[in-house]
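pinging the channel bc i need a second pair of eyes. not urgent but kinda urgent?? the chain im working w is below, pasted from the shared doc
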Amino acid sequence: MRITITITIIALAISAPLLAGAIPLIPDSQVTALAGEISGESAKRNLEGFSRLHRMRGSRDFRKAAEQVIAELTKYGYADAHIEQFAADGKVFYGTQRSRPAWEADFAELWELDNSGSPATRMASWDAAPITLAEDSVSADVTAVLIDVGSGSSESDYAGKDVKGKIVLAASQADSVQRIAVAKFGAAGIVSYAANQRTAWWKQDETLVRWGHLDTFSATPTFAFMISLGDARTLQARLAKGERIRLHAVVKAGQHPGSYDIATATIPGSDPQLRGEEIVYSCHLDHPRPGANDNASGCATILEVARTLHKLIAEKRIPPPRRTIRFVWPPEVEGTMALLNAKPELAARIKAAIHLDMVGGGPETKTIFHVTRGPASLPSFAYDLAAAIGAFADNQSSQYAMTGIAQWPLVAPEGGRDALRAAFVPLTLGSDHEVYSSSSWSIPAIYLNDWPDRFIHTNADTASKIDPTKLKRAGFIAAASGLALANATADDAPAILSMIEEAALHRAADARAQARDLPVVEGANRLRFQLGYEAQMFDSMGRFFAPPPAARSEAAEFLKTLRTLLPTPPAPTSSGPIYRRNPNIRGNLDAFGYDYLEAHLGHDRVAKLALLNFESPRAEGGEYAYEALNLVNGSRTTSEIRDALSAIYGPIPQDAVDQFLAGAAEGGLLERVDR
């Protein structure tokens, strides 16, 4: 009893400041309204509908999912709910994204035949589990023997093996096998047992079937079936004993000119001076069935945010937002690239994005919920705001889990009662948030996501593993963040300043710790970058409003104090060429199904770019490349870009940066600035 009482008193004492003013920029009455209205159960019901559909780009099921969104929005009272369409035929380009033709499948089965040639064992069925057919497979009716090629992603895997006209069994993802087995050696098709993403649970469950994909634009189209690791090992053992295995594959599928269908709706801004500015809620609607956490969860959660905000505004429990709030449900990355490139006037209106991708994983998934900052190259107070709101939800959920008492426990009646245990982390790539935040648009993006998830991209990512409480908490964080940003004005400058200053002190401590572990020159570079970052954090208020003189003065005094905590020598003289982004080619490198640099420089040339192959303890080549392009702004030299990259992710050689930027310029992404 004493222990219980003590814990309760401590928990309440810790949360007291939060209860006095729970969330920056939002009155407690609105916190209560949001927390009470957002329903994890409502979100999960919509999620269950999405997860029954095989939501591949341009497909009938994707369209059904978009229509489900529109039907719900219309029911909620959104008069402007509609579907935007953008051509997707393989010919139209949206910046760095070559549009991918729609892909549809009607039937697919893989059978093992007995000695008489009759079907004996069905190994895969589109009707039962559409994830067993790799995306971009084409129609086929093939009977062939099975050949084990190991990994199947390098030519050495085929030494001494005749795979022409055969079906290959391979451990690698289907597209990498296709480039060698089919394109070079004439294989008739592929059976892949590619394992799930590498996590602590990688290969642990041998029954999982992973989503597969072929090369969208291959000159040698083919088909591929996906099977489990356990089934593959059984086949391998039989083949190793010399058994002859004959398969019959029937596929009715293929590409056709289609469209990117993007459901959207808005809550119009109430302020005549600000309604032309927008805060966007983003997700991605496409995914193989069931795709419950990835990403029916994000789609259903922003749909629930849309319902909640519209209802609370109609009931006058919260005022309408000053800025317009928009909701979008695109195909991942390629749909967002199409939207922002095709509608530059819309992109220009967006002040910030809130992106949800995997936000509902329950205990079985082993997920950790992340509140993720935008790129270090694009400082914004929006990240500190989301972190403060996320910390509030985390504290309230922990208090409730430990004591059974919290003013805002954020618990769904049908969900769990565990603490949220959120992680607050720097930028991670891998979804639409990186499109918004690329230097083509420079839109600050808050990213809410689960990672890891041991069922991601598999047939086991089902609605049964989704926790309504998690959906409610993610929806609350998203709704509160968007509402605060939609209403932020100069009157909020003191609260924003206080929020930035508190977070800046934590970041300064982290920077000092990192600098101690670096060589002296690199350590000084790390501290210089942090000082510049914090100055830009204060400047980021200017994206939303003109900071009043008093706020500017306070920020200047704080930065003066911060310099005493982060003492550095003057920066070295910069050198190297200066580049700017080509305004006619917008987007980042990892478009879906198409590699812009490879298309313009060639595969072999790109494979030799040292920056893309570089790794540090904190990042890999793709992350360096993303920030390198972000840092190109028409005034930074390549040495300044190298220094910034080294501060963000760890030291990198200058020649690796120079080589990459020169290649990007040769490919047309960048233009050299004459000095």
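so The chain is about 40% helix and 15% strand. and The chain has four domains: 2-99+258-446+477-487, 102-256, 490-565, 578-673. — does that match what u expected or am i reading it wrong
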